[in-house]
Amino acid sequence: MDPLSRLLCISNGHGEDAIALRILLELRSRHPGLKLSALPLVGEGTSFQKQQIPLMAATKILPSGGFIYMDSRQLARDLKGGLVQLTLTQLQALKSWAQAGGAVLAVGDMIPAAFAWWSGLSYAVVGTAKSAYYLRDDQGPLPDLPWYAGWAGSMYLPWERWLMSHDRCRAAIVRDELTRAELQQLGVPQVFAGNPMMDGLTPTEPQAKLPPRESQALTVVLLPGSRSPEAYANWQLILTAMDSVVQHFAPRPVQFLGAIAPAIDLTQLQQALVAANWQTTSTQPATTFTKANGQVMLTQTAYANCLHAADAAIAMAGTATEQVVGLGKPAFITPGAGPQFNPTFAKLQTRLLGPSVILVPHPEDMGPEMMSTLANDDRLKHIRHNGLQRMGSPGAAAAIAQILSSQLSLQG
What we know:
By secondary structure, this protein is an alpha/beta fold.
């Protein structure tokens, strides 16, 4: 295979963009002359542009935010919002880009993989959405699965495995070792394991950005999700859960750290706190809110610090919940109305992440559930081990970049 100096990355979602970007930056450090381009199928792709990676085609934010698989009504909204025309435009732009040669990296699910195949070029697939853990754990099949689950022998369906086994697919990279072994057994060649979700979580902001931790305080990170308006509806449920935790742990101090995505309007969350009778306190380094033995601080700049400082999480998010679990901490989740974090997603997340996720159907029951879990040392030890096993160690993006360099014969 001749060396290639052009690489196009196709991704389909906010979390997928972040994973793709970590891999691309690792590739750039190895091959400074490699000409990188991006085709984000969902959203505007601003994260790529901030790193001077040009977009290959027009982008558009669709109503679902990329979660049509969670709710068929979202597909109807996307169709009305121009999904078909956008897809045709992207496919045409892809064919034009491919005429000059190069390779394609697909990050996400079957859709970017199908785009990569359509290009006619050599490609690699990084599967972020699927895992064997949805159907089984290390002991065997999970109980209480729907009758149709696993009909194909894997979460990866036959046509997805065909895309990953195609002669032009030089590497298929999946989330974990259990999934890699499963696909290898099913005949997928050149399959590797690596999960970049745990990269980039070293605290970078000074710890002074967070309020000092009180002696014996319980620290809980709050993760309402990264998409509006869903995050604001999730926040209302989280407020109910917070009240339950404060009441059940009293008189023990409870420190809540709201790790809020930059795209979310902090003012709306603060107003909701005031409406729920949290009292604002003007202190340094940031405005905090108090109620009884509880304290809340919201930040949009110290995400990794919050995750590392926390004993547990109240989470209604995708990637952020997985990162909490990967750090060995329990995540308490409660389903919302969606489009992402609805009951279906929450149930799937418990299967993916196993005992590290505690599904609390009603937020007012959060306190007793958290108290019971945190009082069980054996359970916490199991949660720590499980998180590492399912999410992997930091450094996966660099390892994947090395695989891609070799398998795609990249140069530059």
